[in-house]
């Protein structure tokens, strides 16, 4: 059961064995033990996304992401790198920029639908390596579990829908075959955001599904969360080396 308490100074979500407390004046959000909310008149709170709708969304999100990733891998093996030119990479950059904008707009729109406002929209380097635009949604910690999953996963799901439609247009001969390279590369890149590491949307969604929350201090996290964080740093090194190799190999093979 998830419960909520709110007054002029604080908003508190009680979920499982933890309290999530937001100071309404400073906007600071912290986690605390249940004892911190002892004797407060909590009331039961319901998710904005109903259980039937969430069940359908969960199944569709998995299906779309798996389909999009499979199409990207299949398409990558169909691309003749020797036929690529500069304009192919220019189109890829333009397409990726549009997809990223749509991804973040999805987070923003659904978060507002939940009655919350993002703290910040910006750009950062995850682990000092991975460039990423982001919508900071600290208030997501105050959402019911199922609503949090929708908020964190909607960007990926939106990208996956576009990818599946794009491949469908290719197969229907509505687009030139040059687009296969563009759609495939972005689908594969998007798949990395689904992997539950590197503070990705996949990581945040996984925490929701296994009913875990990430603490600010590493030692305060569960064994599962700590393992994921450690793997993330190793994956950051491997992924960076792999991407550099892939880019160099593609540019070498392409006639540009």
TrEMBL record:
Keyword annotations of the record: Hydrolase, Membrane, Metalloprotease, Protease, Transmembrane, Transmembrane helix
GO molecular function: metallopeptidase activity
Domain of life of the native organism: Bacteria
Ranges that cross the membrane: 56-77, 89-111, 149-171, 183-202, 223-247
GO biological process: proteolysis
Protein name in the entry: Peptide zinc metalloprotease protein YydH
Lineage: Bacteria, Bacillati, Actinomycetota, Actinomycetes, Mycobacteriales
């Amino acid at each position: 059961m998830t419960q909520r308490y709110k007054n002029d100074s604080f908003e508190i979500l009680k979920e499982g064995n933890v309290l999530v407390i937001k100071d309404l004046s400073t906007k600071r959000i912290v986690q605390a033990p249940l004892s911190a909310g002892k004797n407060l008149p909590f009331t039961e709170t319901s998710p904005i996304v109903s259980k039937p709708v969430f069940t359908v969304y969960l199944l569709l999100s998995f299906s779309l992401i798996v389909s999009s990733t499979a199409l990207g891998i299949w398409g990558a093996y169909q691309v003749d790198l020797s036929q690529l030119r500069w304009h192919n990479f220019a189109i890829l950059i333009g397409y990726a920029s549009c997809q990223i904008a749509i991804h973040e707009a999805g987070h923003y729109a659904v978060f507002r639908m939940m009655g919350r406002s993002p703290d910040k929209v910006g750009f950062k380097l995850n682990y000092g390596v991975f460039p990423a635009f982001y919508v900071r949604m600290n208030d997501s910690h105050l959402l019911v579990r199922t609503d949090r999953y929708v908020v964190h996963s909607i960007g990926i799901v939106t990208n996956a829908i576009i990818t599946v439609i794009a491949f469908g247009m290719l197969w229907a001969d509505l687009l030139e075959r040059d687009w296969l390279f563009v759609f495939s590369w972005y689908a594969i890149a998007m798949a990395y955001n689904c992997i539950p590491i590197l503070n990705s949307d996949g990581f945040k969604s996984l925490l929701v599904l296994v009913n875990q929350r990430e603490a600010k201090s590493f030692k305060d996290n569960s064994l599962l969360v700590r393992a994921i964080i450690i793997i993330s740093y190793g994956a950051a090194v491997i992924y960076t080396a792999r991407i550099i190799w892939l880019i160099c190999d593609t540019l070498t093979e392409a006639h540009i």
